[in-house]
Every structure is written in C-alpha cells, then in structure tokens.
Amino acid sequence: MMGFIAVLFGTLGFFLIVNLFFSFLYLISRAAGGKFYSWIVYDFEFLMILALPFFGLTEYVANEFYERFNGFVTRMLLLVYALLVFILAIICFILFGYFADLDYRGGE
Asked: Is the pTM for the entire model greater than 0.85?
C-alpha cells in the first residue's frame, strides 16, 4: 500500500513540474503557450484528455489570468502560480521519498 501512495505522490510531483515549465512558457507570452498547447493536442479530443494532467492546469489558469487582467498583472500572477506549483512539487517529492522509504523498510 505504501508503494502505491509513493507512486501517486511521485506522479503528482512529475505532473506539477511539467506544469511549472509550461507556466514559464506562458510567462514568455500567451501566444507561445497557446501555440505549444495547440501543437501538443493538435485538435484531437483524445489528445486533450491525455494532455490534461501534463498541461491542463496551467492552460486553464493562464487563460483565466490573460482574459481577466492586463499583461503585467497576468505575468505577476503567473509568477505567484509558478512559485505555488514549485512548492507543491517539492512537498509531493518529499512525501514520495517518505512513503518510498516506508515501503522499502517494510512499513515500519
């Protein structure tokens, strides 16, 4: 059971790191992030579903920020979002190490 939880936190941490790098692409420009996402999914519905854990969170957040705020405020909010995602990824990887170590020791 601890191995399953460790894999869950490791996968979640990996998805958060991918979203972190994708948010940096959106920091450069909205067009760069949007074109990259369009290139990844290429207008296929099943690719949108498959790409959801990798890019979906950042795609949603960045589009909401760009629709509601001007460019400067959006970039500041994306920096805060990137910092939050980075902290969550670190927490997930710490928990991954903890549960993997428990599984390795036999659930002590």
From this structure: no
Which among 70, 1, 62 is positioned nearest to 32, based on CA atoms?
62
Note whether 26 and 62 are within 8 A (CB): yes
The answer to whether the CB of 16 falls within 8 A of the CB of 96 is no
Tokens 């980075």 identify what position?
86
Tokens 């705020």, residue? Answer: 69
Residue 44 DSSP symbol: -
Residue 94 has pLDDT above 70, yes or no: yes
Sequence-separated (6 or more) residues with CB below 8 Å from residue 6: 96, 99, 100, 102, 103
Q: How far apart are CA 37 and CA 92, in angstroms?
A: 25
